[in-house]
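Follow-up to my earlier ticket, as requested here are the two runs.
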Amino acid sequence: MRAGFMIMLVVLGLADAAGAAGVTMKMNGDIIIPAGTVHEGLAMTMNGRVQVNGTLRGDAVTMNGDIVVSGTVTGSVRTFNGNVTLHRTARVEGDVAAVNGRVQQEAGAVVRGRIAQGSIFRSEPPQSEQPTPPPQPTWRERWRPWSWDWSWPGPVVRVVAAWATVGFIVLTALIALLVPNQLRRIADGLSAMPGQALLAGLGVWVVLPLLAVTLAVSIVGIPALVLMPLTVGLLAVFGFAASSMLLGNRLGDAMRRQTSPVGDTVIGAVVLGVLALIPGVGWLAIFLAVTWGIGGAVLLLAYRVRRPIQPPPSGS
């Protein structure tokens, strides 16, 4: 009970930090923009819906939720594992996308960008009020065994995956709260040496099995072998947090808004968490982000070891 209360406080603090950055974000619940009102910035919710009856000057994004638009959205409308409904008075200046969902567009609704729906690997035309004849299947669709048709797992797995993503975001934000300066140094290293950091991270995954075998054959190394999973887990969390901080910082610069280290980390972690839920390619993006961040931490440690110790200044 006490731990749940602490996690709730952390989530509320993260929402406040994101709000200061011009981003309205909810881990659970709906975001409703009433008619006649104007909302500035991104509107994002997980396990909830976004309803725009007024004007949204930004993007509308949901994960495991629907989006309903009867007003104006100056950005794009995107949902992962949800549906998009555009009423006849809706106006969207950007794109409309429903990954593993459908787009319902009523007559009179205006979309300036592109409309996509269905799985991440195959787009489908949006539904309209006028029935259209079904398209003829192509030879690829007739030969189903050779088609890559990824679909979302069952509802229980989706809920567990969503809560695991929320927990990982909270954990990375706690790291940003506790050691913001160290995390910032790793993120700066990723920005300065992106290629070297990725190679260093890949090198860590190559060296780890060899190190585990070496420790296993040594009696002295057995205690270190027991602690290796915990060490690798901490490295992975720190790497993910550093990559999230750098990604959130770049998004803040693109929106020309001042953000805090915690706000940067939360925004970047949410984006990476959404990518992780995309079937087929999501976990590859998470693996690269973790590997990249681990490589940045390794480069920072190597730089500190090689840097010569400066003698103290002599008194006058």
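Run two:
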Amino acid sequence: MIIQKQSIPFIIHNTSFIIILLGVLTIQSCQQDTNTNYAQDSLDQYLEDYESPKFKWGMLDMSGKHQIQPIYDDLMDALNPYFIPAMQNGKWGFIDKDGKTKIAHQFKLVQQFQEGIAWVTDFENHWYSLDINGVKSDSISILNAQPFSEGLSGVRTVEGWKFVNSKHEVIIPGPFESVSAFANNLSICKQRGRYGVIDIEGKTILPFQYRSIKNTRNGYLVKNENGYQYLDSQGQPSLQSIFEKALPFKGDKTAIKENGNWFLIDDRGKRVGLPDCKTVVYLNEERWKFKTDKGWFIIDENGQIQNDDPFESTYKYNEGILPFAIDKLWGYADLNCNVIIKPQYPLAWSYHKGYSRIIKDRLMQVMDREGNINENIKHIELRDFHNGIARFQYFPFLEKHLNN
């Protein structure tokens, strides 16, 4: 075959193009192989270093029956009974309340589903959003994420925090140093060392000029260089005074400190003086506790002390019941500090949906509001009930001991 001279450059040019194209395809193939190998190496290294706990986690019902067998390295609470985060052999997935696998165990980290979406990460620390059908999004370049709330999620990037929607579109770019989940279309954010409030469209509601901001009834409690101040929802002072210390309004009254003394105050500024005390803590249910050298005293909305004898320690009111301790033993009292269950337990927790957890004979058990203890539930590790089931850690030697 005779090749004309003028065709040689064309052949050389196209030959060069083909060589370059093959080179690019080879590089891409190598990169894909490298990425695949790196991902597998990351997983292999993780699993090689991972030590599965000897004592596994399961779920039990109120009768003490094992609703979900204790075969999992870890479990989260059954906030959604159809999608319970569960770890097995070092990998997280999701199961339902009967222990059936809903989304395969394949992730390094997972969050609870919220608004139908859960954030997850793979073993290379890539982040994805996951829907309830197990469909995983494309990866998003972030360092951390908050659960979705009111359609948006706070995500942390190398630049800072910003808000994205379910499609990973940046809705509020920020960047912020910290953010709170949206509630009532508002979020408390931090920028340049100061806090402010934005709405769900990113509009500034309170300027970024405060040392701290807390939500309070119908407005905010802010802290600046001069002290604490209450603002209404428009950012205007609802009380003219600035206080040394203050607690958020949760009801009709709250506690403030001025001129070295603590008071209860209503939204019109009317004060009720409290006894000399070191600190005041809100306990829910329009009750507060204040501490003296003798211990903790409980006061109602009128400033009246409810307990004659001081408490050594308390938790907060929940479902109208207060866990309290005297002489290192825990019991329970009502809103007026009448003792419902006398102090007798070395540890006790707040009531949750009608039941509390207590330590009795060195084991965790469940007790109702009348003090009746469920003798079918005795465990070393037990969590609160959600949707009728609770997490527990299974220790075989304990079951043998209880059956003897």
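The only thing I checked on run two: The radius of gyration is 29 Å. Let me know what else you need.
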